[in-house]
Amino acid sequence: MKLTIFLVFSSFFSAHAADGTFAGIHHHYQSPRALGMGDAFSAVANDYSAIFYNPAALAWRQDGQINMSMDVAITSSFMDFYNQVNNVMSDSSSTPEASYTSAAALLTSNYGNVYGGRAGLFEGFWVRPNWGVAVIPADLTLNLAVHNQGPPALDIRSYLDTTVAYSYADEIKGMPGRLAWGTTVKFVNRGFVNKQVNALDIAAAGSSSVISSEDFRDGYTIDGDLGLIFNPMIPSEGFFSMLSLAKPTFSFVGHNLLDMGFGQSFHLINRNDVEAPERLYRTFDIGSKWEYPSLWIFGGRGTMDIRDIGHPYFTLRKALHIGFEFDWTMTSWWKGQYRVGLNQGFLTVGMSALFSVFRLDLAYYGEDVGSYNEPKESRNLLMKFNIDI
Question: Where is 89: in which H helix or E strand?
Fold first, then answer.
């Protein structure tokens, strides 16, 4: 009798599967350097990642850069939680009632917790003065959130983006200062999953996955960004002359201006016509950068951005990004940076070290994945291994 009731409820909840509920802002591309300094980067953008942060900065490049990398970011307890869920699903000796009890207890003990990770495989960038190209074969993001609205439930959201992008930038002559514009045109193919599973789904899955091919959505789009970057002309004498040492820079960037969504699909994962993946969203960033004087082997800058204006999950807390970066240089082939910042209300720290052509980037950052009234931190450690020429 218990088994019959269990199967009836399992069929009912599986047939009424819902999308997961997430309020965090997913960025199409993230740089570990930017994340270490609070993800305030639109007015800095003086490396290869300018293609996605502010293409206008390519107009001011003096040389070329080739960057090839792999990176991974993960929340501290992600693997523990994943292994616990996997143990519940793979316990073949357990009865259906016992599996459900174990799954419910696991979810209940993790109410409110958020887990996740992100990995980029074989990313390639080539930037030169005024232009750049980027190829990102696989940028995978996984978000897990445990909810207590009704029966214990686990929300699962995943993105798998393949991106090819080209940027062009140039200076605008005849301005009182230096002003440049730039644009990035990008093709993005997105695989996407957004599903809520409950304790019954986990218990019934057994050794198989709670996600099937029918849950995947995939589509592609072509979109573009447009950026501006400006160094004002500051008098060398008078009250404002001290500002010339700070070399202030201001930026404005519009992302995904076409915002057409992923309405077309190659059906690479799911052959059926299903709902399109979450779109990129048209958003706007404004930012500033202020250099501080070099001292011995050290230099650096402070930055502040207001990001994601226009996003449906925009809040002032999530929009505010503040960062500080400290450069150190031993020789042209041995140098790096230390960073600290505030990302969506949470502390971030980071560092980079370049030795010859090998570069290591680290960032330990928090981001707000909560709702408007209830901020919630997801803290991640990101490591990126680069060949940087």
Answer: helix 78-90
Contact between residue 191 and residue 246 where contact means Cβ atoms under 8 Å apart: no
Q: What is the pLDDT of residue 288?
A: 97
Give SS3 for 325.
strand
Distance CA 83, CA 152 (A): 18
Residue 368 is predicted with a pLDDT of 93
Pairing mode of beta strands 249-255, 217-232: antiparallel
Residue 242's Cβ-count burial label (10 Å; 0-12, 13-18, 19+) is exposed
CATH tag, 2-21+30-388:
2.40.160
**252, 227 in Cβ contact below 8 A?**
yes
pTM of the model: 0.90
Residue 278 DSSP class: P
- The pLDDT assigned to 206 comes to 65
Q: Report the residue count for the chain.
A: 389
Report yes or no: 40 and 350 within 8 Å, Cβ to Cβ.
no
Cβ atoms of 15 and 197 closer than 8 Å: no
- Average pLDDT of the chain is 89
- Rounded (10°) angle between helices 96-109 and 2-15: 50
- CA end-to-end distance (rounded Å), the chain: 68
The residues facing 299 across adjacent strands are 327
pLDDT given for residue 234 in this prediction:
79
Provide CB contacts within 8 A for 80, sequence distance 6+.
none
The pLDDT tens digits of the residues spanning 122-167 come to: 999 999 999 999 999 999 999 999 987 667 889 999 999 999 999 9
Q: What angle do CA 190, 74, 253 make, to 5 degrees?
A: 50
Judge whether 138 and 163 are in contact, CB under 8 Å. no
Tokens coding 352 = 């980079």
Q: Are 297 and 328 in contact (CB under 8 A)?
A: yes
> Residue 134: in which H helix or E strand, if any?
strand 131-147
- Tell me what the mean pLDDT of segment 290-299 comes to: 76
Count of helix runs (H) and strand runs (E) in the chain:
8, 14
H or E stretch covering 35: helix 32-36
3-class state of residue 10 by DSSP: helix
Compute, in degrees rounded to 10, the torsion defined by CA atoms 114, 117, 118, 121: -170
Query: What is the per-residue pLDDT for 20?
Result: 65
In this prediction, residue 88 has a pLDDT band, given cuts at 50, 70 and 90, of: confident
**Euclidean distance between CA atoms 202 and 99, whole angstroms:** 8
